[in-house]
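Researcher: Let's do a round of design. I'm pasting the C-alpha cells now; please hold your answer until I've finished.
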C-alpha cells in the first residue's frame, strides 16, 4: 500500500531537487524551479499557491507531485510536476500519484487538471503516461521552450 503525505518537511526541497535531477530530463534551471516551489510554499510566500503529494521510501523521497489552481480560471488546476525517482520506478508510484492528485483536485472542487510537457523525444514516456491516464492533448506549440523543443498541453475533465 502506498502512503501519501501532503505536509512539507524541511528536507523536501533538496529531496525534490534530487529526484528531478536523477530523472535526467530537466535542465539546471528547471531543477531550481522545482526546488524553489517547495521553498516558497514552505515559507508561506504570497502567491505560492502550490500543493504537494509525496511518497516516502526507505531511502527518502521516492516520488512527488506539485499542483495548484490556475489563476484567473474557475475550478481549473495545473499539474506542475510529477516525478518518480528512477530507483523507485516500476512500483506503480506514478499511477498512484496521478490518481491521488486527481482525487485531491476534486476535493478542492477542481473540475479539470492540465499538464504541460516538452515535445522532445526524451519526453515520449511522459506524454504516453498522460494519454494512458485519460489525458487528451489540447495543444502542441512548436519551439516553445527553445528551438526544437515545443510544449504539449494535456488535460482531463475530472
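Researcher: That's everything. Go ahead.
Model: Designed sequence:
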Amino acid at each position: 500500500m502506498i502512503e501519501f503525505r501532503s505536509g512539507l518537511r524541511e528536507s523536501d526541497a533538496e529531496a525534490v531537487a534530487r529526484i528531478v535531477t536523477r530523472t535526467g530530463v530537466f535542465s539546471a534551471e528547471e531543477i531550481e524551479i522545482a526546488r524553489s516551489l517547495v521553498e516558497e510554499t514552505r515559507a508561506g510566500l504570497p502567491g505560492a499557491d502550490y500543493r504537494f503529494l509525496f511518497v516516502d521510501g526507505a531511502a527518502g523521497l521516492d516520488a512527488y507531485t506539485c499542483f495548484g489552481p490556475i489563476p484567473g480560471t474557475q475550478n481549473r488546476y495545473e499539474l506542475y510536476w510529477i516525478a518518480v525517482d528512477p530507483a523507485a520506478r516500476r512500483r506503480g508510484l506514478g499511477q498512484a500519484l496521478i490518481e491521488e492528485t486527481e482525487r485531491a483536485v476534486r476535493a478542492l472542487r477542481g473540475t479539470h487538471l492540465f499538464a504541460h510537457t516538452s515535445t522532445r523525444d526524451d519526453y515520449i514516456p511522459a506524454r504516453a503516461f498522460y494519454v494512458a491516464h485519460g489525458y487528451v492533448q489540447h495543444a502542441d506549440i512548436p519551439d516553445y521552450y527553445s528551438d526544437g523543443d515545443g510544449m504539449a498541453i494535456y488535460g482531463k475533465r475530472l
